[in-house]
Amino acid sequence: MKQAFIPPRRTIMTPGPVEADPRVLQALSSPIVGQFDPVFTDLMNETMKLVRSLYRTDNQWAFTIDGTSRAGMEAIMVSLIEPGDKVLVPIYGRFGYLLAEIAGRCGGDVRTVEKDWNTVFEAEEIVRLIDEVDPVITAIVHGETSTGCIQPLEKIGAACREHGSLFLVDATATIGGVEFRMDDWNVDAVAGGTQKCISGPSGTSPISFNDRAAEKMEPRRQVELGIRSETDEDAEALPVRSNYFDLTQLQDYWSPRRLNHHTEATSMLYALYESLRIIAEEGLDERAFRHTLHEKALMAGVQAMGLEIYNNHAHKLPVVTCIRIPDGVDDEAVRLLMLEEFGVEIASSFGPLKGKIWRIGSMGYSARKENVYHVLFALEAALTSCGASIHHGRAVAAAMEIYKKSNSAAEFIST
Ligand SMILES: *Cc1c(COP(=O)(O)O)cnc(C)c1O
Fold first, then answer.
1. Which of 39, 46, 124, 194 is deepest in the core (most CB within 10 A)?
2. Which residues are near ligand 1 (CB < 6 Å)?
3. Pocket test for ligand 1, best of 94, 95, 319 (most atoms within 8 A of CB)
4. Which H or E run contains 390?
5. Which of 18, 66, 70 to mutate to test the pocket of ligand 1 (most atoms within 8 A of CB)?
6. How remote is the CA of residue 168 from the centroid of ligand 1, in Å?
7. DSSP letters along 312-337, please?
8. Relative to the CA of 70, which ligand 1 atom is closest?
9. What pTM does this model have?
10. pLDDT 10s digit of each residue in the chain, 415 long?
11. What single-letter DSSP state applies at residue 220?
12. 70: CA distance to ligand 1 center in Å?
């Protein structure tokens, strides 16, 4: 018999998956209960409330899709996009392409506009496009982990509302770490993941959508044949082209009708519930503050080493810090040394940025003082070992300075 798998303890400073809070890991080991056990349906209802708070929304519809973030986006898109619908997707990094790809597979008439991977869109550019294209749906990423940029959404949301375009957002990178206001920003549907600032394992996607979105999918509602009652009829419009991701069926499952759909991922829901409880205890504003504090300390350390931060501008994503890899330094050799010698993981990037930048995440439970020190220390040692010319012995001290200065907020600096 093979031995049981015992994972090593890592300091995970990537943009996901990140370290799970120990309380969440404990929740994962709780016993299974049946999916229609009142204890479990209560948990479903309580989770809905916490998902609403997470997205700052009053929407009735706030639940989970079993699958990672893209499963959440796919459920939203396949349920909302009818073949031929014009879908505008502004792209400023890898995950924008993913939205366009999913929209295309759903039969959308996809119109994309692309930005270089070192910036975001001016709201006016997108407002003009909404005017020109007149899209049924506009979909965009809030925080691009591939480039370390964050797209302001408020004005785009307002323009979508004015033009009657449904506004869809992928908030995977930001939710639980950076301010996100679904209702204030006129976001009609949103999906996130659990493996980033929510600090649970990947595998479930909290989503929410409002009545405007629900109205668009209503004519497509079709109850599965084997579980129909006499009043259930075929859909008026083309039924949603996915069973698993059909939000109209999931509405019937996550509401008092409790119509059987898939078997809810019991343990994942325990984990998400505990993650969201932790977030509610800390407070969304306090949590955002904590993330920017660790970001500042991390940036100070990186810069003190003499390294250059990529995309260090007003639209830098606070929970991802990108660093230009110094000339002549081998990306993979440095990351391997960090992992093997120090148990610290950081990430490379994708597409045009692969081998050009490193990405350091400071998300959720991984955004801790000890982790920031640890990653700076390991990076300095690995760069030195690989012969890079950097300033020695300054990085950790520079981060310490930041923490010292923010003493007044000491209670948020968990270690
Ligand atoms: C990390 C990330 C994802 C990852 O989604 P998966 O379903 O795990 O592939 C999606 N979107 C954004 C914006 C991300 O940052």
1. 194
2. 16, 68-70, 95, 141, 145, 170, 172-173, 193, 202
3. 95
4. none
5. 70
6. 15
7. -STTB-TTEEEEEPPTT--HHHHHHH
8. 7
9. 0.96
10. 899 999 999 999 999 999 999 999 999 999 999 999 999 999 999 999 999 999 999 999 999 999 999 999 999 999 999 999 999 999 999 999 999 999 999 999 999 999 998 899 999 999 999 999 999 999 999 999 999 999 999 999 999 999 999 999 999 999 999 999 999 999 999 999 999 999 999 999 999 999 999 999 999 999 999 999 999 999 999 999 999 999 999 999 999 999 999 999 999 999 999 999 999 999 999 999 999 999 999 999 999 999 999 999 999 999 999 999 999 999 999 999 999 999 999 999 988 899 999 999 999 999 999 999 999 999 999 999 999 999 999 999 999 999 999 975 544 444 4
11. G
12. 6
* Residue 66 DSSP SS3: strand
Structure tokens at 214: 């629900």
Distance 403 CA to ligand 1 centre (A): 30
CA atoms of 170 and 99, how far apart (whole Å): 8
Q: Which residue out of 14, 64, 69 has the highest number of ligand 1 atoms within 8 Å of its CB and is therefore the one to mutate?
A: 69
CA of 157 to the centre of ligand 1 (A): 21
Query: In this structure, how many other beta carbons lie within 10 angstroms of the beta carbon of residue 387?
Result: 10
Going by C-alpha positions, the residue among 297, 319, 305, 326 that lies closest to residue 15 is 319
CA geometry: angle 106, 158, 55, nearest 5 deg:
70
The ligand 1 atom nearest the CA atom of 71? 7
Work out which ligand 1 atom sits closest to the CA atom of 196: 1
